[in-house]
Design goal:
Layout: H1 2-23, H2 27-33, E1 42-43, E2 56-57, H3 61-69, E3 74-79, E4 82-87, E5 93-95, H4 98-106, E6 113-115, H5 121-129, E7 133-135, H6 144-149, E8 154-158, H7 161-164, H8 167-171, E9 176-179, H9 185-196, H10 199-210
Helix pairs in contact: 1-4, 4-5, 9-10
Length: about 210
C-alpha cells in the first residue's frame, strides 16, 4: 500500500513538468488567451438615499452556480481566471486533464471523471487502477456538452489555453478552477486543496516532498 501511495504521489507531482511541456508550443499565445481576473461590477447607492445601504456587487458565474447548488461553504481561490469565491466540495469533481486528476487523487478527493487531455499512459493507468473513470473528451477542442452530461459539482484542471478558452461556457455548468501551470507544483496543489477542503492532506504531501 505504501509503495502504491508513493507511486501515485510521484506521478502526480511530475504532472506540472508534463503539462508545461505539452503547453510549451502554446506559450506565446497563453497570455492573450487567458482572461483577465474576474472582477465584480459595483453599483453604489445614490447619496440622496434616506438610509445608507451596503455596496451591491454582481456575482461571478462561479458564485451564481454556487448559490444555485446551495453550497454553504465557500473559499477564495486565485487561478488563471482571477480571484473569486467558489464552493468547497470534494464530490462530483470533473478533471479536465490527467495532472489535475492525479493531484485530486493524491489529495484523497478523486475526480468522478478525468479527461485524457495529455495522452499520458502512465497517468491514465494510475487513475484507472484507483477506480477513476478516464475518457477522451478532447484536447484541441473540449466538448462542453460531454462535460455537462456528467453533471459535475466542480470542474478543475490546469490552465492550458484550450481549457481557458471554454472557461465561460463551463462556468455556466458548475464552478471552474484552473491552476496556473507556470506556478510551482505545491502552489497548484494548494489551489485545488482549498477548493476541495483538503488543505491538511496537501500540507502532509508538501512536507513529505520537502523533507
Amino acid at each position: 500500500m505504501r509503495a502504491r501511495s508513493h507511486r501515485v504521489l510521484a506521478v502526480a507531482l511530475c504532472g506540472p513538468l508534463v503539462v508545461a511541456t505539452a503547453c510549451g508550443s502554446d506559450s506565446d499565445d497563453t497570455s492573450s488567451s487567458e482572461p483577465a481576473a474576474a472582477t465584480a461590477a459595483e453599483t453604489t447607492v445614490p447619496s440622496s438615499a434616506a438610509t445608507t445601504a451596503p455596496t451591491a456587487t454582481t456575482p461571478t458565474p462561479d458564485e451564481t452556480v454556487a448559490d444555485a447548488s446551495g453550497s454553504a461553504e465557500t473559499v477564495e481561490v486565485s487561478d488563471v481566471l482571477g480571484t473569486r469565491e467558489v464552493p468547497v466540495t470534494d464530490d462530483g469533481l470533473f478533471a479536465l486533464d490527467e495532472y489535475a486528476g492525479l493531484t485530486l487523487l493524491a489529495l484523497g478527493a478523486p475526480a468522478d471523471e478525468v479527461n485524457a487531455f495529455l495522452g499520458d499512459g502512465a497517468a491514465v493507468a494510475v487513475l484507472e487502477n484507483a477506480g477513476v473513470t478516464v475518457n477522451q473528451i478532447g484536447r484541441a477542442e473540449l466538448s462542453v456538452e460531454a462535460i455537462a452530461a456528467t453533471r459535475p459539482e466542480m470542474i478543475v484542471g490546469v490552465g492550458h489555453p484550450n481549457s481557458v478558452n471554454v472557461a465561460d461556457p463551463l462556468r455556466e455548468i458548475s464552478p471552474v478552477v484552473l491552476t496556473d501551470f507556470q506556478r510551482s507544483w505545491d502552489e497548484q496543489m494548494r489551489v485545488l486543496a482549498a477548493a476541495t477542503g483538503t488543505e491538511g492532506r496537501a500540507q502532509e504531501l508538501i512536507d513529505i516532498i520537502d523533507a
